[in-house]
Amino acid sequence: MVQGPTDSTRVIAKDVPHSMPLLPIVSTVVFPFNVTSFSVHKKPNLAVIHKLPRTDQIVCITLQRQLEQDYPQGRSDVYDIGVAARLIHQMNLPDGTIQVAFQGLSRVHIRKLTKTKDGYFEADVSPAHTLGGHDNSPEMNVLIAQALERFELLTNLDSAYSRELTNILKMNIKGPGRFADLIATYVGFPVTVKMEILSELNCKDRLKRLTERLDEEIARLAVDQEMRNRAQITIDQAQREFLLRQQLKAIRAELGEGEGPEAEIEKLKEKLAAAKLPPEAEKACKSEIDRLSLISEASAEYNVVHTYIDWLLALPWHTQTPDNLDLARAREILDDDHFGLEKVKDRFIEFLAVMSLKKEHKGPILCLVGPPGVGKTSLGKSVARAMGRKFQRLSVGGLHDEAEIMGHRR
Q1: The domain 323-410 belongs to what CATH superfamily?
Q2: Among candidates 50, 41, 47, 39, which has minimal Cα distance to 102?
Q3: Which pTM does this prediction carry?
Q4: Is the pLDDT of residue 247 over 70?
């Protein structure tokens, strides 16, 4: 929890000692001139609070480099810059943690850490002087205006930011460093970003970095808002479609027309999902179902498309027989079933040999030509038996129109 800046901080910051207890935290970042509250639950940090008087004691607060680490092991586990802060309030909670409020005083360099017998570190610090804290140059004014503009845009995008915060910022534009710290305190940046801004001692660079981070936050919020709007539009469209379908169903029931074509389309989609067609066939079937949904039931084309879809779904796409390409066995079967016809049987064996060598050669067709009774059908049966396939005979004698075989218009 962060509260606003206080005027008394300017005076107190001058009396910051050179040695003070270290309070490393992971949940927030304390900035100068602001009051920040947080919970203390780690044993070394609790020891620091227990050692302090009820109020007015100054400690050094900084962020741990490894947020998942339980407690720093040494100087390298905390950032170089911290904030000297004064304890102004503490409250013991039933679960053993302590809720504290600290008032940030000034930035400090953490020079050295010394482990105490109570488990916490004593920090040797020196002042971290801010550069350009009273710079009122045109360039600095432009940087302040840019940051303020970004913050105002942020308040328009996210209702969590009060418009009153903008007024507070406008009252602090004369101090560039304090102005940047206030924005960094108010905006919900990740703690690592807040620490990055706290560690920047040059006010111009701090404002530039702050503006960059504000732009990133604005872009993130804009994307979030766009996604929420899209989701809302999708929900609204779905609700509208549901209501219209319910009304249409009621109208059809009133007219005694049953469920209508929508129910049939849904059934076809369910059949398609259950059929698990090959990708190309599935794509074609989906396309035809979508086309069917746009065609009136009274149209002649409706039945044509529906029949085509039924055929696609009825075909045994996943039913297949493994081929037996044993050439010696095939030759034996052909010789047992037929006497002579050596050239024809040799051609069959060549056909099987090619299939065994060239696996990707799919869908070959053998054409046997000759007058009735010379053995065309019986040879086909023998080849089917040799390959282990089922034999189907379709007689087309007497047909004169190839469309009867190839099929008419869908």
Answers
A1: P-loop containing nucleotide triphosphate hydrolases (3.40.50.300)
A2: 39
A3: 0.54
A4: yes
